[in-house]
Amino acid sequence: MNRNLRVNTYLTIAAFTIAAFASSCATKKQTERTVTLKTTTTPGGSTATATIGAGKKEGIKKFSDLIGKVKADTGLFNTYKVDGKYYFEIPDSLINREMLVVTRFVKTPTGLKSFGQQYGGEEINDQVWKWERHDKQVFVRVPSYSVRADSTSDMYQSVKNSNLDAVLAAFDIKAYNKDTTGVLIDVTDLYNGDVAAIGLPDNIKKMYKISALDNTRSYIDTVKSFPINIEARTLKTYRAGESPTDNSNAAVTFELNTSMLLLPKTPMNARLNDDRVGFFGQRQTDYGTDAQKAEATGYIHRWKLEPKDEAAYSRGELVEPKKQIVYYIDPATPKKWVPYLIAGINDWNKAFEAAGFKNAIVGKEAPTAKQDPEFSTEDARYSVLRYFASDVQNAYGPHISDPRSGEILESHVGWYHNVMSLLRNWYFIQTAAVNPNVRMAKFTDAQMGELIRFVSSHEIGHTLGLPHNFGSSYAYPVDSLRSKSFTDKHGTAPSIMDYARFNYIAQPGDGVTHLYPQIGEYDLWAVKWGYSYFPGKKTPKQEKELLDVWTKEKAGNPLYYYGRQGTSIDPRLQNEDLGDNAMKASVYGIANLKRILPNIEKWTFQKGEDYDDVQTLYNEVIGQFNRYIGHVTMNIGGMNENFKTYDQQGAVYGFVNKSLQHDALVFLNQQVYITPRWLINNAELSKFDNGVVIGRIKALQVNSVASVLNQSRLARMFDNQAKNGASAYTVADMFNDLRPGIFTNSTPDEFKRNLQRGYIDRLRILLNDDANPSFPGATPAQLAGYGLTPINIALSDIRPMVRAELAKISASLPKGGDALTSAHFADLRLRIKEALYPTRPVVNIAAGGPGRLNDEAPQIDYDCFPQTKQ
């Protein structure tokens, strides 16, 4: 992944000082050695290389002269510590073997600003190394897996010639071991130096204006060897212009752990990716196929599960795997939450049963120092749920995989303490109307425990290879979520990997009590697809042929639909939504918000406390209402995405039904552009609001208009009209539906006046700003993949339609009225004139910036629970 190595950098850093004492005096002589670091970004990822430059050549010595009587720490490599130096004894049998190297924070200073990489246990970097011997030196090579060809292919040698492994570090051989089956090298400079591959990430260096590693305040703490791995713990102090704690130190200090784990000699049999089933994976260019092109091949990420009894497995019996998936709970975790976290892990066993395995996964408390003195939560051999003392409202589930095969090797789930605040607020706002048990300031431990169990299952799903399935919740009809019998059996969505939160649709009197997601039908299917074992040593291609049959059998059944995250084109693929009709679901949701808002103070009363909680929950109500607006708006100009293969009938992309798009505009007119005055509860607002909430409601209305008039959305609507004619919901239809909601016959109040100005401003932006929605360096195809449909707005039909709309509005504006109303309409006429005949730079009032559109953003997140992380 090397996710922190983003820029091309060349650094030469004084890395190590050797103290030598003459026999006749105590004068210290210093000899500098250097680490030359080069970080390179390639299509296959980023690679850091560091050359450890030798000082004065010393020649090869006898093993006993260097090591003496120091006892070896035996393991993957025998390691030695002699006079403050650390040595690796590398056996010939491990030369050219690939090893996974993972560096994590052990301890960090307080107040780090870098969200997502600031707590002990969080990963900094991972990389694959090979130790290579050449004459009197040993090199660390970093293989690349971005291109490949099978060793039997005619292209194999050509690929090798153009895919040379980078050299990370070079070491002089200091000695040969006693039977000359291995060599001894000094690795002190590697671990004690500033090497990006195993050191501080570049983004933190920039953030704190770090200039160099300070060797006088840095050291190697321990180097420990185990049967298949080596663990090196270091303390590194950097000179820094800004410290997160105290600038008078002019430094920042971190404790790091680097694990080097031997990869399997024979990689696991890879499973080819299928866009119709959701799995994290990796892609590479394969020159060894007969596709008559450089073919992009994708492999999914999954744990290696093989049945202990292959014959019983083949008979359809549930069989235990040869190696169980084990997750340890961080000893720092509050004891009362441990059982719930473990339960969330163990819940996945029912999914693995669908793949033919029993007891495939287990959560355990981490062993104590007495039980296992060698256990470490940073050790790459162990998967751990790490608990962070943090006010961040989040949790995330990453994993580390073998780049040769996609085999998941370990995972460190990140669990922030304050995720409980997030859960409490969501569960209250989304269910308090039907759930009297949450009408309190603080949930019981049992209530919070069940919510923690739900999040634990979700994050563990990521570590099993499952991404978010944003399309899953669309499978259930809205009214089914008002049924007690249905929700008791199915929860809120067929997949716990959707962002289908809690049941905001159920109404008082429905009797619904099961209000949160659970591992569902899709999850069982995905695990079956990804983890089923095929005996007989089948090739990935042969397995794919069998899996294709399964996939086509499920095609068309919404329970087994996978909807990817990362596109804003398909209204079914949204976070925080429920049901198969956003308009209907949102009407139910708003009805519940209207019941909750007036009761916030009463339901969360806390004697002697201020009104911070009332303010928090009031803002959560507004935020939830805004989510409903977003769910509905996505239908306008929306397209459904259903990945298929040649042997499947039907369209991959199709436009949302015309009537649904019209219904979305009707909803916005009724629920948003007619001011939602139910959001203004003076009894509650008087306890905390100092003039902010009214402005938030106004901004909500204006931003809604800006989203409807998003140029990517308009581009798709013109595309629909060109392809489908009268059956399309057109831009003209949209303007005709939208205009009466913005400009009503009644005298406009302060909200409506603000909305009308926002509408004119957005039209002015479309008419005069040529900016396209984009990400730096993104191609038109990539933009389209995110739903940011590219369009040449200057030459498109957007401008003529906008001019016509402005002319209609200008012609319909009344004259007269009271002083404020008259001034408002006069102002609108001037704004329209300025839009049609601009005399000044375009400024987007809604977005607050010059010449930029408030465009929809793709729904991107980083393998985490709330959409805010990593």
From TrEMBL:
Keywords for the protein's UniProt record, in alphabetical order: Signal
Keyword Signal attributed: yes
Listed InterPro entries: DUF5117 (IPR033413), DUF5118 (IPR033428), EcxA_zinc-bd (IPR032534), MetalloPept_cat_dom_sf (IPR024079), Zn_MMP-like_bac (IPR034032)
Signal sequence region: 1-22
Segments forming domain DUF5117: 121-308
UniProt keyword annotation of Signal present: yes
GO molecular function terms listed in the Swiss-Prot or TrEMBL record: metallopeptidase activity
Pfam families per the UniProt record, alphabetical: DUF4953, DUF5117, DUF5118
SUPFAM superfamilies according to UniProt: Metalloproteases ('zincins'), catalytic domain
Name of the protein this chain belongs to: DUF5117 domain-containing protein
Protein species of origin: Mucilaginibacter terrigena
